[in-house]
Give the backbone structure.
Amino acid sequence: MRQFSISRILVPVDFSQRSEDAARAAKRLAAHFGAELILLHVVEPFHVDFAMLEPFEDSLRKLSQAHLAKRQSQLDAFGLPELQGANITRAIGEGTAAAEILECAKSRNADLVVMPTRGHSRLRGLLIGSVTAKVLDESDGPVLTVTHLKPEGDLADWRIRHILCAVDLGTRSDCVLRWGAALAEEFHAQVSVLHVASDPKIGDRVAKAIEAAGIKAESLIAAGEPHKVVADTAARLGADLVIIGRGVATDTLGRLRAQGYGIVRQAPCPVLSV
């Protein structure tokens, strides 16, 4: 009997190429686990200075209804025929994008959120979009982000054959290793565990953490800037997935620390933040 399962996967979509790539990656996971794929598009409210003026209320209402109908039509057509055969639920949310994504994940008991990263204008290659950053910071569940720096290619053929677990030996490291162990068993994947430190003697602690997780994995210790070391190691190993931990909810710097954002930005493969 399967001990690890994913039943519902939430995919926020904005009809961009990157959200199509995220949906393809999500479909791969949904097909493996027999999971429901929830496609969510969020329509943000109009911001019109004269919206409260009585003469314009009816016109604004009609404009809003027409916009919502257009978005619903786009959502109905999104991903076809690429997502054919998947168990898909399509939902429209109205409000602030990140808040609606988080609420939908909670209300629908999503086991996983899969979404692209997005930057802005000339800084697109450097920044994580504000919506993705907020979801990463505030989500109670795991979030899978697809490759940030370069076009993802056809993620319809994404395979998980080598997993890189990046651990800091903090409070979330056990969770990172549990996810690594579970996904490795599901996909018969190889696992490498990386800890970035200048002291090679810390390898004993990493080995004990791996043993405690009941996982067969190569242990790697490397010095340098964590986000660069993780990205470089993932590229060198040809990793198909990097797993990292988020901070606890009480962290004043956010649940995904600065190094975590750097890993998401620079990793050459999808990153699972747990």
About this structure: Confidence is low (pLDDT under 50) at residues 119-126, 249-254. Residues 8-124 form a domain with the Rossmann fold fold (CATH 3.40.50.620). DSSP finds eight helices and ten strands in the chain. The longest strand covers residues 36-43.
